[in-house]
Amino acid sequence: MEPLALLLKILRYVWAAPCTAVGLSLAIILLLLGGSMRVRGGVLEVALRRGTRQLHFPISAITFGHVVLGLNEQLLTQLRTHEFVHVRQYERWGLLFFLAYPASSLWQWFVGKNPYWDNHFEVEARRLSTVPRKNRRA
């Protein structure tokens, strides 16, 4: 890897680091509940193990910086391309993503649209991913 490319990669990780720290904190909880973890493409994926008493969450997976949390490994596999788009969004927006994402949802609600489905970041993630329609809950 060229020095400039390496520097830019490091800067993307540093810029997203505060959000990744939140993800790591939540990942510890999932791991204590019997979850598993693996690194794919520079992203830590943490999933509850099949057979673990599933907590009821309205989402299948969620991303915080370079950490993706999922209800199980199968869902993480199905939603990986979608969630990795969110990783790239965190790399662009850094800590501002924690403001920009809910601001987009609030705006969509204000103009009478669906706060999740019409959220700018979700629209982009669906457009750039290959997630099957039936699994687009994340």
From TrEMBL:
Q: What is this protein called?
A: Signal peptide prediction
Keywords, alphabetical:
Membrane, Transmembrane, Transmembrane helix
Q: Note whether Transmembrane occurs among the keywords.
A: yes
Top-level taxon in the UniProt lineage: Bacteria
Query: Where are its TM segments located?
Result: 12-35, 55-72, 93-111
